[in-house]
Design a protein that fits this description.
heterodimer, A: about 250 residues, Rossmann fold, 7 helices, B: Rossmann fold, about 40% helix
């Protein structure tokens, strides 16, 4: 399968991270020209992916990047707001500085990037914005309070943007991953002693008996980015191996 | 395109509308497809598509259909429970016969199909149920229809939980898709043309859906691309339900 995104151009924030990198690789494989935007360059970016140094919290920098992009590209077809961080704390342990930082990246970053990308997104004949929510925007994981709150905010922002910019030909959706095998997940596992037992326990609680790989998420991002999804907008797409379809699994 | 190359699929309610859209797309993607309906084989159905005359509400007919699936395909990879009936009534006006017809097809039919076919799908099968946005937000005057779709979406989660990881099960909740069923729903308005225009303005996408839109998502869910997607209800409505029904711009 290839060329589903032939002729399209894409901008991916968090483009060198676990999920962002898989998205960039898939977009490039499908024939899109891709910019991976992130804080630090990666030395092994997929072929055909350009890097731009990018801080989603810096309004001046964000505006400059899109001003520059507008000089080179006639339009932008796909924007993926994948930049995000996680803080593994309750609210009591969370400092105001940490709270403001995670909101600046996960929520304000999505706002700023979308705001300054809009003029370029309007130039084509139909664009797709894909935000990153989380299943944690619906159901809390313990010790992730600020993270859960940021993802709830992204969900509401997604619907609002879909409502406002749909008439301009811009579709807006959010993907809400469950557990995906990324550095963020490994950090969540932390130093819990027998990590392999913990990993197996996490796999077993899923109806699909596994957690996801970044490629599983990229599969859905690719679909939402493509013309196949031309009627999909304003929705929060949970993809979690069935995890949130079930209630708490009691050990009986 | 060959996203479903080598796969076998059964799509209920393939005579028209969304069901036919899914049948045609699956065939175009390389799947071998059987479909069914209560009447005779439609004259315009392509020759390589298998047709069975079946009332999905009747157990003995579903059992016979299952035998035909086994005879034709051996195992089944994809089941789309699309057959559905809509009755434009409040519950006060709904008769016992209405209940039997609507719940027979929309609820009992999905149960019967899943019960009969899951045993021959245990090799990475994908079940796709057609729900509705009205499972979550009621359309006026469609009481049993709305409730039947809530049943479908609830059953979707149970199948995913009970029969994963071998089988994935998801539902699609379409919004207003241009079919005979949508025309029938608009027909109850005092001014159907005005009602259509009003509804259109509530769609951020600026248009109603087409069966091909739903078929595109069904294709993704049927394919191996969706290997991690299970237990979900995915809404495809041009953005309509993302916005509040109280729309000051339309006052």
């Amino acid at each position: 399968m290839a060329n589903q995104l032939s002729g399209k151009s894409a901008f991916v924030t968090g483009g060198t991270g676990g999920i962002g990198r898989a998205i960039c690789a898939r977009f490039a494989a499908e024939g899109a020209r891709v910019v991976a935007a992130d804080l630090q360059p990666a030395d092994d970016l997929p072929e055909g992916v350009d890097f731009v140094r990018y801080d989603v919290t810096d309004e001046t920098g964000v505006k400059q990047v899109f001003d520059d992009l507008a000089e080179r590209w006639d339009r932008l077809d796909i924007l993926v707001n994948a930049a995000g961080i996680e803080i593994e704390k309750t609210i009591e342990e969370t400092s105001l500085e940490e709270w403001n930082r995670i909101f600046a990246i996960n929520v304000t970053g999505t706002f700023l990037t979308s705001k300054f990308a809009l003029p370029l997104l309007r130039r084509g004949d139909g664009a797709s914005i894909i935000n990153f929510g989380s299943y944690d925007g619906y159901i809390a994981d313990p010790g992730l309070a600020a993270y859960c709150a940021t993802k709830g905010a992204v969900h509401a922002l997604t619907r609002a943007m879909a409502c406002d910019h749909g008439p301009e030909g811009i579709r807006v959706n959010a993907i809400c991953p469950g557990y995906v095998n990324t550095p963020m997940l490994q950090s969540f596992f932390g130093d819990s002693g027998d990590i392999e037992s913990l990993r197996q326990a996490v796999r077993d609680v899923h109806p699909m008996r596994t957690y996801g790989e970044p490629e599983d998420i990229a599969n859905l991002v690719n679909w939402l980015a493509s013309d196949e999804a031309r009627y999909a907008s304003g929705q929060l797409w949970i993809i979690d191996g069935g995890l949130s379809a079930q209630v708490q699994q009691m050990r009986l | 395109m060959n996203r479903l190359e080598g796969k076998t699929a059964l799509v209920t309610g393939g005579r028209q509308g969304i069901g036919r859209g899914i049948v045609d797309r699956f065939v175009a993607e390389g799947a071998r497809v059987m479909t069914c309906g209560r009447g005779e084989r439609p004259a315009d159905l392509a020759a390589d598509i298998l047709w069975e005359t079946v009332d999905v509400a009747r157990r003995e007919e579903v059992d016979a259909l299952t035998d035909r699936v086994v005879a034709a395909f051996g195992e089944l990879d994809v089941l789309v429970n699309n057959a559905g009936v809509q009755i434009e009534k409040t519950i006060v006006d709904t008769t016992d016969a209405d209940w039997d017809l609507l719940m027979g097809v929309n609820a009992r039919g999905v149960f019967l199909l899943c019960r009969a076919l899951i045993p021959i799908m245990y090799d990475g099968g994908s079940i796709i149920n057609i729900g509705s946005i009205s499972a979550s937000n009621a359309d006026p005057g469609l009481a049993l229809y709305n409730a039947s779709k809530a049943f479908v979406q609830g059953l979707t989660r149970s199948i995913a939980v009970d029969h994963g990881p071998a089988i994935r099960c998801n539902a699609i909740a379409p919004g207003w898709i241009m079919t005979d069923m949508a025309d029938a729903a608009f027909a109850v308005a005092s001014n159907p043309a005005a009602a259509q225009q009003d509804a259109l303005q509530r769609h951020p996408a600026g248009r109603f859906g087409q069966p091909a839109d739903i078929a595109a998502l069904a294709t993704w869910l049927a394919s191996d691309e969706a290997a991690f997607a299970s237990g979900q209800v995915y809404t495809l409505d041009g953005g309509m339900t993302a916005a509040s029904p109280l729309n000051p711009g339309l006052f």
